[in-house]
Each structure stands twice: as C-alpha cells, then as structure tokens.
Design goal:
The complex is a heterodimer. Chain A is of the alpha+beta class. Chain A folds into two domains: about 325 residues, no CATH class; about 100 residues, Beta Barrel (Elongation Factor Tu (Ef-tu), domain 3). Chain A contains 13 helices and 15 strands. In chain A, the strands form four sheets. Chain A has a six-stranded antiparallel barrel with strand order 10-11-14-13-12-15. A five-stranded mixed beta sheet of chain A has the order 4-3-2-7-8, with helices on both faces. In chain A, β3 and β4 form a beta hairpin. In chain A, α2 crosses α4, α4 packs antiparallel against α11 and α12 packs across α13. The longest helix of chain A has 26 residues. Chain B has three domains: about 120 residues, no CATH class; about 190 residues, no CATH class; about 45 residues, no CATH class. Chain B is built from 16 helices and eight strands. Chain B has a six-stranded mixed beta sheet, with helices on both faces. A two-stranded antiparallel ribbon of chain B has the order 5-6. By secondary structure, chain B is an alpha/beta fold. Chains A and B meet through α1, β1, β3, α3 and α7 of A and α5, α12, α13, α14 and α15 of B.
Chain lengths: ~500, ~400
C-alpha cells in the first residue's frame, strides 16, 4: 500500500463520484457459477445459524431455517439438506480427476474444485465455527447424528482453514475480492459492508459514491451477525413458533408453523443474494491474470487431498502441533510473497506502489551489451544493459532485481547508478548466461523489481520429533465434541431497555 | 502513585449542563471510557465526554444515527450466564475460581454488591466504599478469600469523578487481589470464538486493575497487591458451562494508564468551550433533520474535530455525522489518517486531484505533491481509461 497512491485515488473518487479500479486483471478464480452461501446467526449464539441460504449464484437459493436453532433436533433437521447437498457437490467435483506429471511421477488431482462464495469475511469465521461444531458431534441422547452433518462440518472447517492461504480461490469473501479490485472512499472497517462497496462502484445516476454508500450502509443488512432490529422481529416470531409447536420437533408439526420465520429471513437474504450475484458477474468480466490458473491448481490439489481424507473417514486436529504450526506459517508466508509478486508482475496497476516505494524501477533500455566476467571457476558470458529510468532512483550496487518479463528466471544485478539528466542511468548485469528470451531490446520500456515468482529452493521438512524447546508442556488435545451444551435450556431473549446497562453484555 | 480527585467546579458543571442541553445523558462505564480513549484527541468527543452526552443517541432520527443496539438474544445470553454464575450461592463461580486459581473458594465470603443498594449515585458511593474497605482488608490477610460480585471503583477521569462496576474481585488469593471479568462468548479448543471481543474484555479488565490500584494507593495499601493476571470467566463450547482463563494484562494496564493520562481536564474543557456551543439543537427531534445536522456541523466546526475512520466508526456515535462534514469539506482524512498525514500543506481532495494531474504545486505543497503527481502519472499509464471517467460534481 502506498499512501501517495491512496491519496490520489481518494481525490479522483471524490472528484468523479465513483470508485476506481485498482487492477487491470482479475487475480481470483471465479467459477461459473460458484456456490453461494449466506448465513444469519442468532444474536450472541456463535454456533447457531438461524438461517442459511445456498445454491449456485445467479439462480434461486435454497433456504434452511430451523425455527429454534438452539434446539438440536430442529437445528439438525434444518441443516440436513444443506449438509447433504454440500457433501454431494464436494464428492461429485472431486470425483472427476485429471493426470498431472510431476517429474517422473504421475498424480491425479480434481479437474475442478467446489468454489464457495460468501458476502464477507465474517461469514467465513461463522462457517468455521459451525464446521467445528458439526465435525465432531457426539451421540448425545443415544442418537447417532446424521453422518452427512459430520462430513459437511469437516468440509466447512477445511474451507475456513484454507481461506487463510493468500491468493486462494476455494472460498471467496466478496468484501475482500471487491476491496482488492476497487479503490473506494471506504476505510477497511467500512469495507466489511458489501452493499456499501457496491454502492461506491455503481452509485445511482447523479448520486455521489459517498452518498450512495452511506445510504446503503444505513439500510443494508448483510449478516451473519444480526442487528437489534432484526432480532427483535426474530424474537417475536420465534416466541410464536415455540408456543405453537409446544415442544414438538417433528416435521409434520413444525413445517406448517415455520413460514413466518422463513419469510423473515427470506426478506433479509434476497437482497444479499442479488447483490452477490451482481458483484460476481461484474468481476467475472475482468480477464483473469495468468497466475490465477496456477493458484487454482494448488486449490484443486488441496481440495482433492481433503475430500480423499474425509471420505476415507479421516479426522483433523483442532489444535496444531508446534511442527504443524511452523510448517503452516511457512507455507502461508511463501504463498503471500508469491501472490504479491505475481500480482505486481502481471498487473501494471499493482506495480505502482512498488515503483513509488523504490522497490521497482521502470525505464527505457539504452543499450544491451555482452562481456565476459570471472565466474566461480571460468570466465563466463554475461549481458549488461543500461537503463534510463523515468525518475531519479537510489539503488545500492549489488542489488538484485527481476525483469517482470522473466520474473521466474534469474535476476539482474545493479552495477552502477549515475545521474542522467532529470533521471538516472542504471547499469545492470544478468546473473546467468544471456539467451534471447532473457534479454530486452534497445528502446524497450521495461520494469524491474525486487519481486520474483521463482519457487524457492526445496526445503527439507521439519523433523518429526521437534527439539524439547518446541515441545509443549501439555500435548495438543485430541479433537472432541463441543456439543455438550445442546442439552441446556436456551436462554430467554432480554429486551435491552429492561436492563440497567445493556452494554455490559457486549 | 498519587492521583488528584478534583470535583468539577459549580461553574464548570453549569457550563457542561448548558452544552448538553436536551441531549441524552449517559453514566460513564468502562466500555464508554474505552470508547472515549480511542477518540480522546478529538475536541468534539472530549467535550461530549465531559458533558456526559450519550453520543449514540444525540442524532436519533437523522441519517447520521448509527446503529448501536444489541440483539435481545445476545443480552439474554449474557444475563443467563451471569445468573448461572450466581445461582445456588454462587456455586458455579466458586467452582471455576477454585479450579482456576488453585485456592478453595467453597467457603469464601461472596458479597453481591449488585443487590441491596439503590441504583443511583448514593448506592454507587456506598458500593465503592465497601469495595475500598474490603480491598484494604488484604493487609490483614483474611483467613478465607473474599469475592466481591459487582465491585465498584471510584475514579477520577480528567478531573471528573466516575464509578466503574467490575464483575468480580477475588481478594486474598495468595496475598493478592485478582480482577475477574465475565463474558458470555464461548471459548472453543482453548481459543475465543471472537478475538475482537477478547481484546475488548482484556482492555476492560486492565482498566479495573488500574483503577483498583489507584483505589488501594489512596487507601494507603500497596497497589502492587492487585495482580496483572486477571481472570476471564466465559462459557466453554456450545453451552453456558463456565470455564476460567488467566491472562496477563500488564502491558494493557500501562496502555490504559497512558490513555487516561491523556484525557484532558474537564474544568479546562468547560472553561474553553465558547458560549455558542450547545448540543441542544442537535438533539432536538422537533427540528428538521437538515437543521440538526447543520447544527452539528457548526458545533464541530467551532470545537474542532479529528476524524480517524478506524477508531471513530467503532467508538463514537458522531462518526457518521463527522464523516458527512469531512466529505463536504473535501478533507483528505475521509480516506484515513495515513492518507491525511501524507498530504501536509495540501488543503483538500480537490487540490490533490489537480496535483495528481500534474498541476504545479505551491512551495508549501511541493513535498507532498511530488509523490502524488508521480502516482497520478503511473496510474494513468497503467489505466489510460481512467481519464475518460465521467466527472460528477462532488
């Protein structure tokens, strides 16, 4: 992020009255159509999805409403269709594989992966908690839970954990996707509201982006955490529902009574569903960056490993061991560095912050020459270029820079920097034997930066038995069910005006 | 460690009452104090805090009214969790404290200060007195630990006396006092389900630690008797079964101390408020919306405002109204503090746009204008279509 660029974009949005694109390419894979999920929780109840809508985006959604989500029987009955559909889609998608050659080894990975799209990052966290709850259900009350619920819980947990991988496209929070692709007058806190973001991008005719987003922010309800006004209605409808069913949880009794609650949540979800479809359709119009394919292949691979593990009855730890945590952190950091590099190398708009910060230089090649220099053993051929930069630069001798056209190849090393009129002349030497593909031509305008997309060297895996310094006093607990509280009586809703200080329960 | 406890003078109180007018009043509590600490550099927020104005409700009925309520289910969960801890003679609270602190609380004296006292200033004063006396008993090393449920700490915030209600104070645990905070969000696999909520709870507990230490100091007792290790009592997993967590909040206590030290003196604020400033018209629901928002603009224009989206939008009920004013003025801080700090000497976003198109800067603008102009050139190079955007009046 460059403050100067942000200031410029803010000033232009202020002047023009609408958001501006940050990118020239789309850096996230978008399926056609992805599986959309919208969720509303009951206030304060982190594990209770009061309503879940799902389905291929762009079409109608299916809706699961439990009525009283704190009642285990009603909750599971409502979630069962979602679980069954999610499991079927995951298995079907993972079932179709393609061969991939890795050296002398042939491996099979899914030809596609089930992509989930949600309105915001908060929904991902909510799905993660729901997944944690479902993935390790106990046989409470002597009733074995529906296995598809458990499998769906494992899928949701996998998706939410995978969401941490920079550049992944398996689960796409649209607030982040839009914030990455568009500059708006919204702060990161305000960007969590997808309706406000969308209003800045396409404000009504004659309305400034600021006014449009302020209006959207005041009116739109995105979920998953309900506001007071929503749950006041829910409270009334739920009380009527619970009184009418009289403790009965059977489908013939519950189904005719649940209509008002279902209508309540349908009214909340319909505008969000339409908004998500519009946002995805708009971003799909942008051409995908070349590296999207590589990153999605990584997603497919992870998806294939996961479905294979889960369908064979595998379980995941709920707390990482120190070894797992260290390896995960390294994997995420590597993915972050590569994602940043790929975006900047492929998309001129993403290179701007690096050019402004001095991590990149752009200029015109004044000359290309070749000379022999002393290598480790023999004298070797090396190419030299003189680059006339657009702006004056300060670069230390010996600094390694990668030409964006060969960012996955060898770097160029700074040999000298001299003032050249109002700019600088930089002499760079290629750190490999010159080939035509590695050399720019005279008068070509090129960009070099510290970013490269070359995979790092093979790293040895960490030892299976970490040293005592990295062994916890208490080993991580085995995964356990967390549903013991399902047997407790749900707390009654309390009107905030009836307690002396409702803020104390925040 | 000594602290002043100055009551605001009569003149100051009158001035602040006049400023508040018919705007809804509020009683300070730790959450409001924490919220104010986030925006204490804003003169308007400081005046509103000094005049005890409930910023959430002043703009009710206007487009700038921010949502601030809480789900009745969330409140119900919180109430149910606290009732669970208290029922059967605080049996659950005794159990978790015994398990978590390694001291037997089964026979501990538990005083529920939330009952038996009037819900007004007199009641709070009495509860604060009981809390101070019980805390002072630490010197005598009571034979059994004491737990104060609903301890009240009296503190001086910018010269203004205020009462703060802590959930628990366990006194006499290994010669120390432990501050406890109850929260109804769950902990799963040893981790909170909501990390933001955890941070807010630890900040609250740190404030109680600091205020408790000041109370002990005034009573002539070693303030170090209050431990940095506080206790969080939360439900575990899906139900409400409580579980305890110890957490060191030492660094947060130091941060809260710095923030409270930065709170301006209320008498100074009262003396500096121009006579024309009042929130009366802003809160007057009989006036048209535009008139109320205009009145807000005039008040903040007179007092001054500091808009920082990250803190204002989460902590101040005036944030949306300030945002409107900031936007109308073309103030760069609409895009955040980082952007605003990048543009010293440049008066507004309109001028930034001109400089971004290559307009010659004035000497005062020059340092900030160079990177902006370069950013403009690079952006236009990357996105030539941007210049063709339809221009709309701001």
């Amino acid at each position: 992020m460059s403050a100067a660029l942000e200031a410029l974009l803010a000033s232009r949005i202020y002047e023009n009255g609408r958001a501006l694109r940050r990118t020239t390419l789309r850096h996230t894979h978008l399926a056609d159509p992805p599986l959309g999920i919208v969720m509303w929780r009951l206030g304060g109840e982190r594990f209770r999805a009061a309503a879940v809508a799902w389905g291929p985006l762009g079409g109608p959604f299916r809706l699961a409403v439990a009525g009283e989500p704190r009642n285990r029987d009603l909750y599971f009955a409502a979630l069962a269709p979602l679980a069954a559909d999610l499991c079927a889609r995951a298995r079907r998608t993972a079932g179709l594989t393609v061969a991939r050659q890795r050296g002398s080894r042939t491996e099979f990975i899914p030809a596609d992966a089930l992509q989930i799209v949600v309105p915001n990052q908060t929904t991902i966290a909510a799905l993660g908690l729901l997944g944690r709850y479902l993935a390790y259900l106990s046989d409470r009350g002597g009733v074995t839970p529906d296995p598809t619920l458990i499998e769906a819980g494992k899928h949701l947990r996998f998706y939410t954990r995978h969401a941490r991988v920079p550049g992944q496209s398996l689960i796409v929070p649209l607030d982040r996707l839009v914030s990455e692709h568009w500059a708006t007058l919204l702060s990161p806190f305000e960007q969590a509201n997808l309706a406000a973001l969308d209003a800045q991008i396409e404000p009504p005719l004659g309305v400034h982006a600021f006014d449009a987003s302020a209006a959207a922010e005041a009116l739109a309800r995105i979920g998953p955490e309900p506001t007071e006004d929503i749950d006041r209605v829910t409270d009334t409808l739920m009380a009527e529902f619970n009184a009418a069913r009289g403790g009965n949880t059977t489908r013939p009794v519950v189904e005719p009574l649940i209509g008002p609650l279902r209508d309540h949540y349908r009214r909340l979800i319909e505008p969000v569903w339409e908004l998500m479809g519009r946002v995805v359709a708009r971003e799909q119009q942008l051409p995908a960056a070349p590296s999207v394919r590589r990153r999605f292949e990584g997603d497919r691979e992870a998806f294939g490993r996961h479905t294979e593990w889960v369908t064979s009855g595998g379980r995941y730890r709920t707390t990482d061991t120190p070894r797992q945590a260290a390896m995960t952190l390294r994997r995420l950091e590597d993915a972050q560095a590569r994602y940043e590099a790929e975006r900047a190398v492929e998309d001129a708009a993403f290179m701007i912050p690096h050019l402004l910060s001095g991590d990149a230089v752009r200029g015109v090649v004044a000359s290309v020459s070749e000379q022999r220099v002393q290598g480790r053993v023999n004298r070797v051929r090396r190419a030299l270029i003189a680059l006339d930069s657009d702006d004056p630069v300060i670069l230390p001798v010996g600094k390694k820079l990668w030409w964006t056209a060969t960012a996955g190849d060898h770097p160029w090393e700074v040999q000298a920097v001299h003032p050249h009129g109002a700019s600088s002349r930089i002499t760079l030497m290629l750190c490999a034997a010159p080939t035509p593909a590695r050399l720019p031509t005279v008068d070509e305008r090129i960009t070099l930066s510290t970013l490269h997309t070359r995979p790092d060297a093979y790293r040895l895996p960490l030892p299976q038995d970490p040293p005592w310094t990295h062994q916890p006093v208490i080993p991580p607990p085995q995964p356990e069910p967390i549903d013991a509280g399902d047997a407790q009586t749900p707390p009654a809703a309390v009107d905030g005006t009836q307690v002396p200080d409702p803020g104390r329960y925040a | 460690m000594t602290h002043r406890m100055i009551q605001p003078g009569r003149a100051s109180e009158t001035a602040l009452d006049r400023v508040r007018g018919q705007a809804p009043a509020m009683r300070p509590n730790v959450r409001r104090l924490a919220a104010f600490a986030s925006v204490h550099t804003c003169p308007t927020a400081a005046v509103a805090f000094a005049a005890r104005i409930d910023t959430n409700r002043v703009l009710v009925g206007t487009a700038a009214e921010m949502p601030y309520g809480q789900s009745p289910f969330a409140i119900g969960r919180g109430v149910a969790f606290e009732n669970l801890l208290r029922r059967y003679g605080h049996a659950e609270l005794r159990r978790v404290l015994t398990d978590g602190l390694g001291v037997d609380f089964s026979l501990a004296a538990i005083e529920n200060l939330r009952e038996g006292y009037q819900p007004n200033r007199t009641g709070l004063t009495l509860r604060a007195s009981v809390t101070r006396n019980r805390m002072a008993e630490i010197v005598a090393a009571p034979p059994e630990p004491i737990v104060l449920d609903g301890a009240v700490l009296r503190a001086d915030i910018g010269g203004l006396a205020a009462f703060f209600e802590a959930d628990e104070m366990a006194i006499g645990v290994g010669g120390q006092i432990i501050v406890g905070e109850n929260k109804s969000w769950p902990v799963v696999d040893g981790r909170p389900a909501d990390e933001d909520a955890l941070g807010a709870a630890l900040d609250q507990a740190a404030t109680y630690v600091l205020l408790g230490r000041r109370t002990l100091d005034q009573a002539g007792v070693d303030p170090g008797r209050i431990s940095d290790n506080i206790v969080l009592v939360t439900p575990r997993n899906t139900g409400l079964t409580p579980v305890i967590h110890r957490q060191d909040v030492g660094s947060r206590v130091r941060r809260v101390e710095r923030l409270l030290g930065a709170v301006p003196d209320m008498n100074d604020i009262a003396a500096s408020i121009p006579p024309s400033v009042t929130f009366d018209r802003i809160a007057d629901v009989t006036l048209p919306e535009e008139a109320r928002l205009d009145a807000f603009g005039e008040v903040t224009e007179t007092l001054g405002r500091v808009y920082e989206p990250a803190s204002c939008l989460t902590s101040c009920g005036f944030a949306w109204a300030c945002r409107r004013c900031i936007f109308a003025a073309g103030d760069p801080s609409i895009a955040g503090g980082l952007v605003a700090r990048t543009l010293p000497g440049i008066v507004g976003l309109g001028r930034v746009a001109e400089l971004g198109r290559g307009a010659p800067p004035s000497p005062a603008e020059a340092p900030a204008a160079v990177p902006v102009a370069r950013a403009g050139r690079l952006y236009d190079e990357a996105m030539p279509a941007s210049q063709a955007e339809e221009r709309r009046p701001a």
